[in-house]
## 1
Amino acid sequence: MKDTARYRTVQKDLRRSIIEGKYRVGDLLPSENELCSHYGIARMTVRNALSNLETEGLIERQKGKGSIVKFKRKSIELLSIKGFTEIMKGKEHKIDTVFLQAPMVSQWEDDFYWALSEMEIQAGSIFMSRIRMSGEKVIMVENTFLSNSNLTDFCEIPFINKSLFDTLIVNHDIEMTGVVQKFRAIPATEELANSLQLGVGAPILEIIRKLTTNREGFFVYSFAYCNTDDFTIEA
Amino acid sequence: MKDTARYRTVQKDLRRSIIEGKYRVGDLLPSENELCSHYGIARMTVRNALSNLETEGLIERQKGKGSIVKFKRKSIELLSIKGFTEIMKGKEHKIDTVFLQAPMVSQWEDDFYWALSEMEIQAGSIFMSRIRMSGEKVIMVENTFLSNSNLTDFCEIPFINKSLFDTLIVNHDIEMTGVVQKFRAIPATEELANSLQLGVGAPILEIIRKLTTNREGFFVYSFAYCNTDDFTIEA
DNA sequence: TAGTGGTCTAGACCACTGC
DNA sequence: CAGTGGTCTAGACCACTAA
């Protein structure tokens, strides 16, 4: 009868509120009893939702106190950029993300690095290209591919928090569950040298990743190229 | 009244059975109803236990079928070396580990990369240097530091499986629980170029890692330098 | 069709935190 | 002390799997 389970509704509502910043880190969520009466459901149902949010790492629960917003994501899916030298400590190094190519529907490349399933090939791909900058300096070029399946309006609706992962989980209920990531140091090609404002042949960090999700057969593929003169990449 | 919750008992029993091999990968656990009557408890209690085992990654549950044993553990702490090109598929590329410097007691370096606790400084460090080779070719140079605390005979007893991690867990009950890892691409210094049989200035992959363990305040620090011409590093 | 896990209810008692 | 999350019960109907 019900399209979606009630605990899923509660889970999604709370998750959206946390990710969008309605609750901040350290805040208490409404108590279980409050959620029960608000949604008109039994406590075990609310607890199911909260238990899942705890597994996702979004909250922590304390007896006698309540459900506390954590929102320290497991860094497993994030490529985080850190200043390398001590000098960076004082300096600002806010990282900005800019689209070189906004998400667009396209074909998979013929010589795509990873093996694709029949399902993925049928669905086609969504491609985007982003750069991460510190001030005027380009730190990373990242090309991302995902399978174009059941992602309604993905290319039309703007990202949440400028983040692919926040957008996937809030708008599409897709959560990253694991990653295979490969690292190499390669000499900059002319194209990369241009993008990263380096000389041809300069050392570039290449990161090739395949992210698994809670949706069967749905993966996110990412190819990143980094100038690590002043920054390290944490992964 | 109860020292341990009933669902914890069920969880522990099943976990032990899985890890000890009583159930194999792909096997079905007893059904929820069977577990209920076996333990004489309510179904929601059994489900709590199974839900936790699912979160631990030990089982998978399927509607209409049952609880299936998975037991794929991830080895978060390993740097694994993979052939990069398709050509490597057919070829042998067994990786050999050789000591350049066997484990030895020493002082911490003055300009050590990571901040050390008072406890670590007091204890002093154990240092070792290893290379990984594919045939005659050096793929990686890795320098490792650990705090010299309560590691009886660590420098005297040979490694188990040539592996630091196997040795730490079997001989010293120390298990890796997490890692912070930083990646950079750097030009080879003369020393690195020599070790890795490359030209000066060639791109080198640098991996700096701090591993956390189940022993409070005990960390393993590792600095690795890789020739990624023919291999990628998975981490 | 019989058995499985998925969802849900309306209670209950407990240990703990904070006032 | 009132309120919180932790544990637990004894039912219920559902969708799914396999025989």
## 2
Amino acid sequence: MESVIELAFEGLYMLRIELSFLLVFGGLWAAGRVFSRPDKARKAQGAALVRRPSRRPEEAVPLANVDPKKLQEPGWVVSQVSLLCRSQVQKALELYRAAMRQGLSVKDMPTEGCQQLYSNLVTAVIRVGQADDALSLMKDLRRNGRSVDASLLCSATKLCTSKQLFADCLAIYDFTSQDPKLDIQDKSVWSCLLFCAVETKGFHRCSHFFDRLKACGAPSPKDFGNMVRFASSTSNWRLALNLIDEMHKAQVEVDSVVYNTVLAACVSAEQLDQARKLLDDMVEAGGVTDVITYNTLAKGYAKAGRMDMCFELYKLMRGRGLNPSQVTYGILLDGFINDNEVEKAVDIFNTMRAEGCQMNTVLYTTLIKGFARAGQVDQAVQIYEEMRKERSMQPDVITFSILIKANCDVGRLEDALKMLLAMKEAGLKPDEVVFNNLLGGCINDCKMELAKDLYKEMISSNVKPSVATFSILIRLYAQCKRWDEAVDLLRQELPEQRVSPEPRLFGQLAQCCLRDRQGRRASEVYKMLTETSTPTAAMNSTLLGMCAKLNMLDTGAEIMHLAANANSRVDPRDAAMMLEAALRKKKPQVMGALKEAMVKLNLPVHA
DNA sequence: ATAGGGTTAG
């Protein structure tokens, strides 16, 4: 004990100089604070906050100086909070919360004061972007036995929408709509909600909002526009076309953006005949078709493999006096390249040049893709070099992605890695597809080390792997016969990366196992699949078909047992096929196991 | 507000 005290004194003695400095300066600092306080406070918080005998009415009292009893007086709180709401929203909230803590009775407040208090607070917090506070204020109201009235909800919705707080707006509506007495008759509230739902992709509620809106009056052109956006985003082409009809009937002008969006809805729903009909309607309506109209439909034809129609449409567009844009040429070039119609792609390219169309990153990238597809990697790289020479336009992530894949595909892994470096030097961040392409490049020559490094880099640079990544890794591990690692990949890494355990990943690995005659592992993987989902009959059919073909009858029987345990269906024909194979190969034990599984699967076992 | 280029999958 004594030695401790001694030690402490010794320590203090050694630090005596430092300690004296501390004392002196500390003292000075404290004095400075004490003496300069009123001044600083005055400057920082404004004159209104300092005790002064004659306070003007617009000035609020600082929270620290408020008499706790005042906080229980509704009238005082309402006026003070309302004052602060104008310019000091945080202080208003603080004062309000202090009053709540002091037991201000919201329940017993006069209705008018209560409305004023919450209306001012709610609008003030939304105005500064704190819509979550608005929601908690409304919850306070309800907790105290009062309800959010239509006018408060109305101003909250409108403000939230104008501040682009779409999700908050919907959350506020959801909370208030729990009150069955609340009746919203204001059309603009429904307009706002519809817009918010579209913006946040909350498509399941758009129709409901639109119905409620129509119950309050005629929808505006913007409301129709939002509904068309909804229809297009969900590929609901019937709804989209119906909306146009509805607009015509309501004598609402349909502008080209709305028409084009409806056209896009038809195209994305693969309703090309409907889209074509709509184009004709648009031409008849007059003044609403533009390049975008034709490009939208042209892309639809290209995607459907109808390059003949696509090209016809392009000619029609020119015939009608519209000039093709870079996008038009991009669609045509890409379409012909995908169709392996190189000469036609070259024709388009030449027309493009002749018409003086400027190249851009997308057009260059499309050309690079064309050469890559034709196996002319050197040509592809040459386009890339040309592109780099033009300072105004630089390759982007997609350009590099294509170049990297092109190099990987012909086994030039070194060059692909150089491209990766070049893209980083250009300030571009490799994304998932880039990493996937590089990982895919590791498969052929089993570059396990490189693949692991790339995967590590992917994770450490916060690029999330996807189902595609795992599918590629399965191929890699299977090629290199790293079966343990492949199983761990699905068992551990997949959940670790929060990638959804899609059945086909397990199916893919199980098939790889079978192909390499890894029967035990195949059934292990199948069992893993049954732990996350019920295998489909189609999946069972594929696996059992392979088992039969590869003469892996034990594995087939095992899979059928596992399928039965998981309540999965097995096609009777597949079971019969297995049984027949076992009979042919004279395997009585396997036949026994198969029959047992068939009983479990409720399948008829013939003699 | 609306249109074009990239990865997996036997």
## 3
Amino acid sequence: MAKSPKISASHEPGGLIVHISGLLPSLSPAEQRVARLVVSDPAAAARRTITDLATAAETSEATVIRFCRSVGMDGYPQLRIRLAAEAARRIEPPDARVVGGDIPPGADLAQIIATIAFNDARAVEETAEQLDPAVCEQVVEAISGAARIDIYGAGASGFVASDFQQKLHRIGRIAFYFPDVHTALTSAALLGRGDVAIGISHTGTTSDVIEVLEQARTRGAATVALTNFPRSPITDVADFVLTTAARETTYRSGATASRLAQLTVVDCLFVGVAARNRARARKALEATAEAVQSHRVGANRRRA
Amino acid sequence: MAKSPKISASHEPGGLIVHISGLLPSLSPAEQRVARLVVSDPAAAARRTITDLATAAETSEATVIRFCRSVGMDGYPQLRIRLAAEAARRIEPPDARVVGGDIPPGADLAQIIATIAFNDARAVEETAEQLDPAVCEQVVEAISGAARIDIYGAGASGFVASDFQQKLHRIGRIAFYFPDVHTALTSAALLGRGDVAIGISHTGTTSDVIEVLEQARTRGAATVALTNFPRSPITDVADFVLTTAARETTYRSGATASRLAQLTVVDCLFVGVAARNRARARKALEATAEAVQSHRVGANRRRA
DNA sequence: GCCACGGATGAAACTTACTTTCAGCAGGCG
DNA sequence: CGCCTGCTGAAAGTAAGTTTCATCCGTGGC
């Protein structure tokens, strides 16, 4: 036994494949044939049955088992699983999707999907990373204690504002959203100390939203700005500034990345508020879910 | 695909786990127990023998096999290998953020943010992975050639529907969204061959949306469903099925993950449509951007 | 309320895959 | 030349995976 009673650790930490390659010369001829097959295409080997692999290596099943033991595995099934895992790991990481990049003219849909998803996911992750928990905490506290919450947003950001309003409403907070500037201004004029006003604007330059937020601030409400640009005008009228981290999206992406980033922030605030009073929030959510139940039809189909 | 000449394809190239999550509600109770075990710890499942897994799921081996078939595998060994590969691919996120998991009661805001962002980003990525480009392509083609596009969605999905409508409108496509069922039904009744109707429902069980989509189909329009559950009722009335891959979100997350996933799909379709006629789309977008310019105030501040 | 039906389920029979045993055989050495 | 040693595959044995089938349970029709 040239190979074994040694305490050289059947460790093989990094790569099983590498480990096998290293052991190759110390294996018997028949086992080497098996090893070569395995090393050259681990994924394919993982798919084969032991008989299959034995045949391919022009040897018997017994030899394959011996090979498994030689490389430190308990048996063939274990080897198979390890191989599958190895093979999966060494799959090329996503190709050259330029972050924040444009979509090349010749791109097919699969590429488009990959690029968009990559950028969208990145926007969400990066937004979360740069969010200041301390500021969030303060905003959550303000919202939790507010008598009333006004949320402003125009265009695309209006969707997010509306979403936020709905969320807060569902857990029993008094929140409003106004699709119309004039109504919003009127409402802002009625805010006072103890109320909260939230303005959402990706660019931070939407005059309508800024104006309304400013009005709210004058009246003594705590103002919150949600924007992608920490130095944009909207931040001048905000007590608390929360920023998203969507890279400047090209016109083609439809600005969805910024939308997703905003929604993520909104979700964080929402969950933060809900967490402050679990019992009440849970109850409210269950009640609202119950309410739409009659508008749902039977369950999913079984089988194919 | 035993069910209809549907174009939705048992695709699942990206994530097997995700695929299983989506199918979960369409599985029988015993199979669901198996599925939950598998989803919650794929790596562990891969290590188990079929008998072992069956015991853990408090069921018989036969059910495990049935489960394998239900999710599109040939048998248990194949599932095992795929599972091992999947598990290896997803480099375990360092800390204990349970995917799709609940937020622990004691969590501070920083944890909440991290958890939410992680789940949201994952939903976006996984949705993109399992999207079938071929189906997308067909939908894009249908939209591009449509005389008119109706988009339906209720509640949270209504936001997405509305967003989609606005996007298409911005690049000069004739698209409509109806917040009200009656109006929607009326509109659907006026659709015909060459028109496209798109129904959005996370659960796939929203009767209002299904009803309207069915009406549209009867009138000869091409129907598209966007849902998280590939076997849900809405897919019965759809010519094309597009699925999102948001894991079942806990009540606390406010279902934002599913929203983001839907938006991502919508964005892909939008970009796909826009890419079909770059010049025209670009021009339209520039014109619309121009239009809101007067509602923007001066640039961002420099310095601190 | 009863019955027929269909789907879900696990026990058991069955098949296939994996593992062990063992005898043959090739090469090396006295 | 004969014996030993270690490699090897055939075949036996065991465990894992798969199929079949009887039972059970809920549903809807009469």
## 4
Amino acid sequence: MSIELNGITDMQPNIAVVANLIGDNARAKMLTALLGGKALTATELALEADIMPPTASSHLAKMLSGDLVCVRKQGRHKYFQLKDHAVAALLEQLLSISAASMPTVVTGPADSGLRQARVCYDHLAGETAVMLYDSLLVQQLITEQRHDPALTVKGESFFQQIGADLPRLNATKRPLCKSCLDWSERRSHLAGALGQWILADVFSKNWASREPDSRAIRFTAKGLAAFRRCYFP
Amino acid sequence: MSIELNGITDMQPNIAVVANLIGDNARAKMLTALLGGKALTATELALEADIMPPTASSHLAKMLSGDLVCVRKQGRHKYFQLKDHAVAALLEQLLSISAASMPTVVTGPADSGLRQARVCYDHLAGETAVMLYDSLLVQQLITEQRHDPALTVKGESFFQQIGADLPRLNATKRPLCKSCLDWSERRSHLAGALGQWILADVFSKNWASREPDSRAIRFTAKGLAAFRRCYFP
DNA sequence: CGTTCAGTTCGATGCTCATCGAAGCATATC
DNA sequence: GATATGCTTCGATGAGCATCGAACTGAACG
């Protein structure tokens, strides 16, 4: 039996409510900020969206009940995150479409950093990430079956060798490899637990660092060289 | 240089405008109706959304300038369609997320037809389509590289044999094989020019027919048997 | 405890926008 | 031509909701 709501039977899930949640300017700003992957507090999000705390609070309550974000209390702070990888993927796809319908493709110095390398939720995105993905495919370290990629045997030994704790990564219920669409490149890059590990590894080795208050990632000269040496044949 | 709009520089594409377009109830109904793949007239869409023609007209104008739909004039009718496969994919992804955030997964007789087999823009979706996709993979008629699948040599001869005019399909600028995510199954099925051909072929052989005023597809008993004989080992 | 800071609730305000009737075009049909 | 039909423009109406100030809760911190 279908669900009865106000006497109207809607057997199909209602797109409008979710889209409407994202469709507000302030909420959209918050969500794109959360695409940076870091958990942000309510006031940080208010700043990001250029609104006062009360307004932010109301927005966050709505996104919570709409299952777009989740929250973790820590002392007197509330840290917000995107609820799901599905939500992150949806946002990136929206970015991709929005970029397509822009009057002209903007490639200024302001966002060239973003296009080169940025954080997408918890993994690497942008030109660098797409090149990495292609390289992994060419080297046959990953292969694509069904929708998402998977590590090959060769790939498993490769990542073990460079320090990835694959058993631990596999222990999480989250898939090891996922493909994620880039809004700037319109191509796939690697997401999933392994994608997350790679980004964390890049940071822990100080190959790159985050730009303050931005999703952009800046590689150091040495870091980029090491990254290339590691992942490109 | 970034685009200046009202003195505000926004280098990132604006999610909110696209999401807001989808976020209205009436527009969402029209868009999901268009997911059925058939081009619909303005009045048909007005009926679908339960609104008067003037309102529909205003909505359609907005979606046109927002690049969500496109239009083709024919006599005194205006036929609307989804602009892009990207738009269709976005809508299906939204359906998928909305279905996830529903209180309980509804599996009633009303939508069981939809879940079994339905039209997704121009190709087959639902349980049947996902099984087909898996079967093609298992038989190694298609293979997945990068994001989208591709025909194998074995697959090429198979589809030629059952009557697909591959050269003609390849002549279109549209990719032959695409994978598309199912909101009901949360798995991939086959889209692209070949996906379209398969659905058209199913219809032309009278294996199945569309339910009136629905995206659901009803296979005949004989048709389903023939379909299985054709695509399943 | 008082103080400070993070976040929420409440209520008032104001703007945006969906909605539809009436009238206006445009295209077909007789 | 005259009439019907599909769609649009215009203007008025009204509802929803984003916004913020003020007051409140609750946690840290001395």
